[in-house]
């Protein structure tokens, strides 16, 4: 496995990332961050994906910060999601131009608020994408219009312990008009635990493997 440290400019902001490349990668997954990518399990999920044969592009920082409210009462608004999705468009373009990834099918992964960015990006860039997976998604922040425009095969994973998150995911699932699946983690896996992240990674790997198989690259 090789790691390539890169920097790119998007919307006037420098984004630093790590491209992890296993031998004979079967696809590449853009790990979409939000305010604190180190805190939402993306490094652990990325490691699992690489072991399964997927390249990953993971950002070391550069997530959108919430602009609604102040201090401990800060919250995300739709404009934050759109801003971060615009930045991630630059990342997709980088993957499309990079010789090591340009011929690979591409997927998206996001957790929590970042899942709304995944949905917005999929609504805009569907033809470039083979599949997406989100965990404990707050996809409603992308808006119903974005959810209804998504045509990318979509996997929604929920921990099953938070009834609010479960309800939001069921509503998002009903708004999607695409090949879709809703999966619930085993009750024994506490949200945010290593076990939960491992289970989420296994579900995502199966989803990507199924939908990457035979898919055209981002160049198509």
Notable traits:
single chain; 8 strands; Rossmann fold; alpha/beta; 220 residues; eight-stranded mixed beta sheet; 36% helix
Structure overview:
The radius of gyration is 16 Å and the shape is globular. The chain is built from six helices and eight strands; from the N terminus they run βββαβαβαβαβαβα. The chain has one domain (2-212): 3-Layer(aba) Sandwich (Rossmann fold), CATH 3.40.50. The protein has an eight-stranded mixed sheet with strand order 1-2-4-3-5-6-7-8, with helices on both faces. With 220 residues, the protein is α/β, with parallel strands linked by helices. The two termini are 26 Å apart. Helix content is 36%, strand content 23%.
